[in-house]
Amino acid sequence: MIKTFITSHCTIQAMNDFDAINLRILALSLLAVIGLSFQQARAQSQEFELGPDDRWKDTSDEQMTLRKNQLLSARRAILEGNPQRGRDLASAFIDRYPNSPMRADAYLIRGDALMAMGDEYEALFEFEEIARNYPNSPAFVTALEREFEIAQQYANGRYRKLLSLFRIVPATDEAQELLIRIQERLPGSRLAEQAGMALADYYFRVRDLRMAAEAYDLFLENYPRSRDVNKARLRLIYSYLADYRGPRYDSTGLQEARLRLEDLRANEPGLAQRIGAESLLVRIYESDAGKLLSTARYYLSIDDPISAEYTLRALVKRYPNSIASLEALREIPGILARMPETVVRMGPDYRALREEKLGIPWDEDTDLTGVIDAPVPSLPTIPATTGETRLPESDTQIESSENTP
Q1: Torsion, CA 34, CA 36, CA 39, CA 41, rounded to 10
Q2: Greatest C-alpha distance within the chain
Q3: Are 63 and 111 a contacting pair, CB within 8 Å?
Q4: Residues 19-66 pLDDT 10s
Q5: Which of 78, 150, 58, 71 has the alpha carbon at shortest distance from 104?
Q6: What's the CA gap between 67 and 60, in Å, rounded?
Q7: Degrees to nearest 5, angle at CA 204 with 202 and 209
Q8: Cα distance between residue 318 and residue 31, in whole Å
Q9: Tag placement on the chain: N or C end, fewer CB within 10 Å?
């Protein structure tokens, strides 16, 4: 009995020891699982960045938050009216984190600080750094917007500083270059459309009409659905018309303006009526005719009546209802009097045209036959010779031969 009790007591004690060991193992397993999960979570929250010394640096969420707070402090300083501090904070960030993904934002903040300090030309270097090296960053479009703002100021006549002291340096060239770059870097966007129109308006404002016409034409080609398309069409026509300087100069612009006006009259009749397209076409018609009349008078000034009549012939045929054509019919009698009769016979009936257009009869004493053509001299006859050709003797030789005994 006692032996049985002792045996059962030992068995119960062994079972209790076994349960304690299992509990310890279970506790250790739980601790190991918790520690592994903590390590994995910590590893997932950690980020590493390759530094300039080729070493990986921890850029965890805390570090990223710290960097964002630094940039926010710089922005806050600018908004509070202390751009110098904002510039210093941005410069410190750029120097400390050369490979940070927020480096483009730091350049943008430093550029904004320079603009707030009145050094917009120096700020352009910061924005250009973003445009050239960080085209995929969110700050890219914002940097181009800042450049567009500066370009508008320069295009409207603002000078840039010399040695950061005095505004005495014209910056129109910089404005043109910036507006062109914006269109190249962000094609098809609203900002590029605004830059294209601003560039064309600048050329129109400074009376560089050929460049203005080219810029407006390019605007219509690139942005046919723009809300400023009618403005570009009208400015293009005005540029062509204003570029024509008189009958002694090239009239290519007039032809382009005529084509644009006819296109406008066909596609936008209401707009064409508002701007007086018909009167502009009449002006172009008269200008073309006046150029031919001026050319004919030039030929007369160099004593070339044939070319003058040929030019007037084209004038009367192409522009019969123009004032220049009436002037040509008044001057044609004097021109015909100086021309060969064969050329006069080949020309139109100027007598009938003069009576029809001017209602003035041809003067009875005006000769329409022109100058009688001089007869063509005949070739000298060559006498037949039997052998060698004898030269004719001079008078002195004949006289000396007669006095010879």
Answers
A1: -70
A2: 206
A3: no
A4: 556 666 666 666 655 655 545 544 444 555 555 455 555 555 666 677
A5: 71
A6: 11
A7: 130
A8: 104
A9: C
